[in-house]
Amino acid sequence: MNIGAKLKELRVLKGLTQEELADRSELSKGFISQLERNLTSPSIATLTDILQCLGTSLGEFFNETPEEQIVFGKTDYFEKYDAELKNDIKWIIPNAQKNVMEPILLTLEAGGSTYLDNPHEGEEFGYVLQGAVSIHIGNRIYKARKGESFYFISDKNHFLTSKAGAVILWVSSPPSF
After folding, report:
1. Which of 69, 91, 109, 119 fits as disulfide partner to 86, beta carbons 3.0 to 4.6 Å?
2. Side-chain-side CA neighbours of residue 137 (13 Å)
3. Which residues, including other chains, have CB under 8 Å from residue 7's CB and lie 6 or more apart?
């Protein structure tokens, strides 16, 4: 762990200058500067005082929880192919089932369909990346082609079909796949 860099980051987040932090912690500006550049090391007591001035504790300061992943690529996708329904589902956000929203990349082969989804509380959104789909909601059918999107409340039976195949970005909230 780079203690100096982390101290500087906390100081800047709190909007303090080195001089202001030095005054609050009863240290010299030079000492704070040396700490931030890792030219010296503080005693535990001094570090505790500095961290108190920065609104944190030793435990919080040294807790190194891994940074949350924000960007995902193809190597992160989870894929499932269903030969019976002739579709391929790629969860493009790993462990999305724990989220309020679940985006997937759905590829329907010619004549393929998605699972029949029973009515549930939530919403569905889709964007057709390739091909065309029929959106079956209750006993109504809607068509969407490449470049078009769809949105509906999930309170009726619903599923998608495609005569010639399609690729859809589909977001379901809450997750239902």
Report:
1. 109
2. 14
3. 35, 36, 50, 54
Q: Could you give the CA distance from residue 36 to residue 2 in angstroms, rounded to a whole number?
A: 9
The backbone torsions φ and ψ at residue 36, rounded to the nearest 5 degrees and listed phi first, read -65, -25
Sign of the four-CA dihedral 27, 31, 35, 37: positive
Choose among 12, 14, 32, 13: nearest CA to 22: 32
Answer whether 119's CB lies under 8 Å from 154's CB.
yes
The CA distance from 48 to 148, in Å, is 57
pTM of the shown model: 0.53
What does the chain come to in residues?
177
Is residue 3 classed as helix, strand or coil in its secondary structure?
Answer: helix
Query: How far is residue 130's CA from residue 30's CA, in Å, rounded to a whole number?
Result: 62
What is the C-alpha separation between 113 and 85, in angstroms, rounded? 5
Residues 43-80 have pLDDT tens digits of 999 999 999 999 999 988 988 776 666 566 778 778 88
| Residue 175 to residue 78: CA distance in whole angstroms | 15
- In angstroms, what is the C-alpha Rg of the chain? 27
Q: How far is the C-alpha of 63 from the C-alpha of 84, rounded, in Å? A: 48
What's the rounded Cα separation, in Å, for the pair 173 and 171? Answer: 7
* Confidence label for 106 from pLDDT (cuts 50, 70 and 90): confident
User: Any idea what DSSP says for residue 109?
Assistant: P
